[in-house]
Amino acid sequence: MNAAEAARLLAEHGRLVEAELEALLGWLEGPQSLAAERRLVAAMRHATLGGGKRLRPFLVRAAAALGPAEPAAVLRVGAAIELVHAYSLVHDDLPAMDDSPTRRGRPSCHVAFDEATAILAGDALQALAFEALARTDWPADAEQRAELVAGLARAAGARGMCGGQALDLAAEGAGLDEAGIGRLQALKTGALLAFACEAGARLAGLAGEALAAVLAFGRGLGLAFQIKDDLLDATGSASLLGKPTGADAARGKATFLRLFGEAGARARLEAVRAEASGVLDKLGPEALLLRATLDLVVERQS
Amino acid sequence: MNAAEAARLLAEHGRLVEAELEALLGWLEGPQSLAAERRLVAAMRHATLGGGKRLRPFLVRAAAALGPAEPAAVLRVGAAIELVHAYSLVHDDLPAMDDSPTRRGRPSCHVAFDEATAILAGDALQALAFEALARTDWPADAEQRAELVAGLARAAGARGMCGGQALDLAAEGAGLDEAGIGRLQALKTGALLAFACEAGARLAGLAGEALAAVLAFGRGLGLAFQIKDDLLDATGSASLLGKPTGADAARGKATFLRLFGEAGARARLEAVRAEASGVLDKLGPEALLLRATLDLVVERQS
Questions:
Q1: pLDDT for the residue A226
Q2: Cα–Cα distances in Å, from B134 out to B25, B140, B207, B228, B288?
Q3: What residue numbers bound the domain in which B175 lies?
Q4: What chain A residue is nearest to B88 in terms of C-alpha separation?
Q5: pLDDT by residue (tens digit) across A75-121?
Q6: Number of structural domains, chain A?
Q7: For B200, which of A137, A226, B60, B173 could close a Cys bridge (C-beta 3.0–4.6 Å)?
Q8: What is the reported pTM?
Q9: Chain A residues with CB inside 8 Å of B114's CB?
Q10: A-B C-beta contacts closer than 8 Å
Q11: For position B12, which CATH number holds?
Q12: Cα B298 from Cα B226, distance rounded (Å)
């Protein structure tokens, strides 16, 4: 599979994810809803729909291709992870956090609505993610639903995404060494990306060594994603990215680029890619979609 | 059971809840944690421990007394609900929301730490609540764990607490009629209080009409709680409450007091109490703890 074919599959899956997200957000609208409730849901829709590559849901799908998995389950789990990702962007963009006025080329949620609504929209998106996983209206048994809730909660919380964002905020201007930046990124973006891989593998019925290999791949992909993100922030195109570039350097953020320089970061990216790719060799030919996703992550321009 | 005995049981159960919350927060501390992660957990502890009556966990217990329920399950579910309650207070106190400098007689989380940390602490507390329910380390089968996750997520999200807070913020200065204020409160505080009753009843094995009666009681108790809250804000003691009084009127908040006046609100509170108490008659003598809790809610001075 070449990168162009993978990009086509990513776009195709993205449309299915969009429809699933629409359906989940549709749970929130009732005939009794008052104007302020509808506005909250509108803010949640603004933050969730009509943008984003849907990389995390695609990782669920790519890992799920390692075994037999229900397509409806793959979509539901991918959408739940995407809801957590969307909420985290809303809160990260707040004035007290990264203070970003735009996101995906559109006004950030707190700019399009207001700060209080953005805080609540993020909170309610997180709740919706867990409701989506826990409800009985998708093909998974209760054991699997509860296991996915626990895994997503761990990846999203203080030992995952929230802990990473706390490190990121504290690291502005402060010197973190390679281990510190590695931990920051493993938590902030890596935990959710790795969980997407793990969840897909679980839906495919993987266990033991095969599951462990997918987890190791997920951690490597997360690291590659972040190094590429740092490179794009320094050298990418603001119009392709849909957000201003150079923001990390301006804020003195702890990045791999700052630690290794551009050439060093590129070399590190290739090393991480090679290692993650090597892990896939253990998983056989069904791993071709995961391999193509890794290529997409490393070669993306936005 | 008289009110003094119920107050003693509430305090006794509160100590068990405190220990359970300590245990859940203990999951977050690892040897690899860096300073900023430990600070995030410290903010979560500040927001969660050492304060609060633990009314919601006690409601779980009181409803669970309607049938055979595992004490460890009652504690786990109560603590999970309390984590959601604690996160909501942290976010409600933020400058962009109610802008409250104190909570339970101590500095609010964003004052004791900072705004970004308070946002993240609330986010991570919500994730921890769902992890606590979904994990396998407490006595409930997977079906029950998933069902409780779905119920808590619904009560906490846009159709519950977050929707109610959105109504509350929008209603400042605006005129809401009785139905509007009723919906606001049913979502903002009622949904979580009613879910605490429902969850306890489910742990006790209730179903059908008995479960429906507990749900109706929970909605009534939630309404009584809110009318009492409005009365305390207007006429209570700031030192007992641990927060400034008169804040609702100063902000032009939509309250039952504003709609009915003090005497009218007191009359409404008694009517709601009588109706909720009547519902309990259907549930037999095991409902005595729920009845005592209703008395506590209506007669509390803080």
A1: 92
A2: 15, 10, 22, 34, 30
A3: 3-299
A4: A123
A5: 999 999 999 999 999 999 999 999 999 998 899 999 999 999 999 99
A6: 1
A7: B60
A8: 0.96
A9: 96
A10: 195
A11: 1.10.600.10
A12: 10
